Structures are given as structure tokens and as C-alpha cells.
Amino acid sequence: MRNLIVDNVRPFVNGKFEKQTRMCLVDGVWSKDAPEGTETVDAKGALALPALFGLGLDFKEPLRDDIYTFKDGVEAMRRGGFYGGLYESCANAIDDSLKLAAIQQISAKFGLSIAFLGAYSNGYQCKDLSEMVELANSGVAGFGDGNQDCSRTRFLRLAMEYGSMTGKRFFFMPLDDSLRHHGLVHEGSYADTLGMKGIPRVAETIAVFRILEMARFLKVPVHFKQVSCGETLRLIENARSQGVDVTCDVDIYHLLFDDSCLFDLNSFYNVPMPFRSATDREALWQGLESGTVNAISVNHDPVLRQDKEVNFEDAVPGAVSLEVALPAIWKPLSERLGAARAVELLSTAPAQLAGVAASELAMGKPANVVFLNEDKPLDVGTSLFAGQVCNTPFLGKQLPSSIFGTYIGGMWKEV
User: pLDDT > 70: what percent of the chain?
Assistant: First the structure.
């Protein structure tokens, strides 16, 4: 634990930012005083926010530790102000208690609040059910699909029926592979102009409808990851009105980009869920305002440089986000929805979905804090990122805000 005094800072307390004050961080707790000789840093009016919780983390280890490791991911979390996250690796299906125990052991030594999704099928193959009851008893937060489409509706029923015994939520990325049919981008005028294969909205909405009907039938709670179009939100609203326990999140990139970005032909815009129209992007923002969208996700998905520096069509989908999420989204989010709602969507609500205690700033309580210079721009370069990858659409761009430092688990990191 490192003791620190942070001067000239505005802490977020009781739903608003206080006037500039001094924060004494002693043994990982916000205290009234600090021991004599404690190091002091000047935050120069930075905002002190409760540390964030990231939905959609994938650190690749052990199967693809040539790309990224758990150590890289934890470093990225500390740089970006995340005290915890919900982990689900597309490369490493957690389909039995031994794999869960191994990854829990790896994560425990880093001291962050990381929850895990268990796979509902062995290897995400949708052929054999995983030991969901055993996984639930061992501590998984819920069950996920590894961003793979379960096209066999009968298997989906069997999985959700078995999983209903645990009371855990099922997490799905809703994208019908047969309708996607090798598509890369949103099916629309930009795709037509560029001659790219498109992914229609119905590839998402049909998958959502099928899962919602199964959830209604079996009375199983479900969550939709990376919702990308307005029609999906209407289906979710309708299902909720009929008593279905359904939640959803929106990725930060889908709030900041639409399919007009495709004209750059930048492979960093190649992500699993396509960027849809400007109308869809506005619908996602309205979903945040109305409460239809429960949380904002980060979907941190590392990809090797050589797998991105190719033609758009040949690139591996995915984007990292932990280091840039808060500087990119804070200003537009807080200006449109207010600071209290922004903190809820980035920190409190994601943690609740994962069943993890939320971070809060209060005197005498554990202090997990991220200090943000709201009006100091950030130039995004390769040195900002942990590990060997930097696959983000923001690379080489300037973000409206920057992180001054983070204090998480008693560890101070000046960014």
C-alpha cells in the first residue's frame, strides 16, 4: 500500500463533484489525515472519479499469450482507471471448474475485482453442455457464449434450461452467423459504395428475438452484449414490459462511431459488431437516456499488429479500449447525461451486472480512484498501451480528456 496526498482535486461524492480539496490516501483508504512526510501531488483541478468496471475483458492467456497476457491486461486496467471487470476469453473457454480455478488463481495475485463468465458449452462449440452447476458453485458470475453464435436452437434451450438451476444470467453477443454470411460492416449505403459485404440489422434482431423468446419460456435472466441498433432496444423494451429479466450494454466505440468511418478503410474499425448508421448511434444514446441500456461496456480485445496492418477485409476483428475508454467517452457522456449518470453507466451498473461490489468515494472507505483532466486533450500514441498491441480506432488521434493518475488497491500510477 502506498500513501499519497492529492492536492487541488474535485472528488465525486453523493452524485456531484465537490470544490477543490485535498485527498489523503492512506493504506488504500480515503482518510482525513496522512502521516508526516507523505508524498504530495498536485492534481491541478482534476476530477476524482470512482474507478471504473469493465464489461467484456479478454486478455488471451494462456492459449494466445503470444498476443497478450493477464499481466498486460491488469496494467491496462490500472492505466485506464479500472478497479475490476467481467472476463470472458474468446480463446479460452472456461467450461469446467479446473479452468476456472486456474484463471482465478492467476487473477487473484493482481488484487483487482475480476469476475468470470463460464461457458455454457464445451469450447463454445454448442455440442456438449459444460458443467454449469459446478461452475456456478465455483463462483462464475454468469454464462457466456464467447461471442460465438449458437445456431442450434434446441441446444440453446437445453443450455438455458440446465443453467436456470443456478439462477445465473446468460450473456450473449446477438449476431446470427447465417445472416452475417461473411459480412464485415453494416449493410447500408457506405458498404454498397465501398463494395463490401454487409451485415443486416436483422442478423442482430433475429438473434435477440430468438433468445428473448427462450428466456420468456424458461424464465431465465439474459444480457445482450454490444447492442448496435435501435430495433434491438425496442425488442428489449417490449420484452421487459412482458416480465422478461433482460439487460443490455453498449460498447464505447458504437457510441462514438457510425458506419461513415468506413471511408477511411482503416482496419482498426473492423470490430465484431459492426458500426451501424448514424440513426442507430443516436438510438443507442437515447437508450442510455431512457434507461433501456443498462451499462457501457469496453470489450477490450487485443489483436496483433500484423493482423491489423492488412486490408480491412483480411484484418482480425477487435479493439483494445481500457487505456482510452474514459478519456474518449467522459466528456460527451457527462455533457449529455450528467456526471452522476455517467459514473453509473461506467462504474456502478457494470459492477452490479457482474455481481461485484461497486466502487464509491467516501471518507474512511477503500479508495479506488481515477483522476481525470477533463479539459486536457490526450494524443493517443503507442506508448499509452500496455503489452505489445495498440489496436484502437483512436490511435494517432486526439481525445478530449486525459487521465492524470489512478489509485487502485493502494497502488498509485501516474499516467
Answer: 100
